[in-house]
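Protein modeling request. Please complete all fields; requests missing the sequence field cannot be processed.
Requester role: graduate student
Desired output: 3D structure, token encoding
Chains: 1
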Amino acid sequence: MLICDLNGLPGSGKTTLTNNVVKVLKNENIVVATREDLFNDLYSDNKFLKNIIALLNINQLRVNILIIKIAIKNKLTLDSMKWTRGLILLLYLIYKAKINSCYHILILDEGIVQYLTSIAHDKNMYRSNNYDLIFNWLNSTFSEDIIVNCNLGFTENIRRLVERRCGSKRFDFNTIWNIEEILEIKDKNLKFCRAGLSKIHTIELDMNKPLNYNTINLANFLRTITNK
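Delivered output (228 residues):
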């Protein structure tokens, strides 16, 4: 099972691209799923128990402890706790999907990189032993998978967020200035994580290009990988 982990700034078009690629591949009878499908298939019942199992899963216990350490160092907030629990659960559900070969391809519009940067949220991520160990574990665990960097400039990013009226609603921003400030931090954190996960095969997408162009390119790449 191939994991395709998309990351990018809020509003860069990750979910729209994911849905389009999934539609193309499903038409070719490829068993492809999204993050939403993953949670619907493997997290629809016994949620409390599954969170406990994810936390104590021996295959990821070491990295779980490191993730929690990072969250504590960033000063625990309700948001950071939510993303910490979310990342631990996501890793567990991916593990379950892989060992059971649930899909040919799992495309995550909000995946590992996105969850990891969301724990820090509006704080800069800096190199530390904890991060180095997390990156080493992720590089090893997902060495045969794919990271997709969805790149979009600040100006266009802000325009899309404002157009969708998602500034204050999604990110608790009140002004354009606040949006710029948060996006700069998020961009730095994304680059930090991308550099740390450099051993995983990476695709760079220009999200300024037409949606259909990026859809075809990513679908073609994933099709080629699964046919090998």
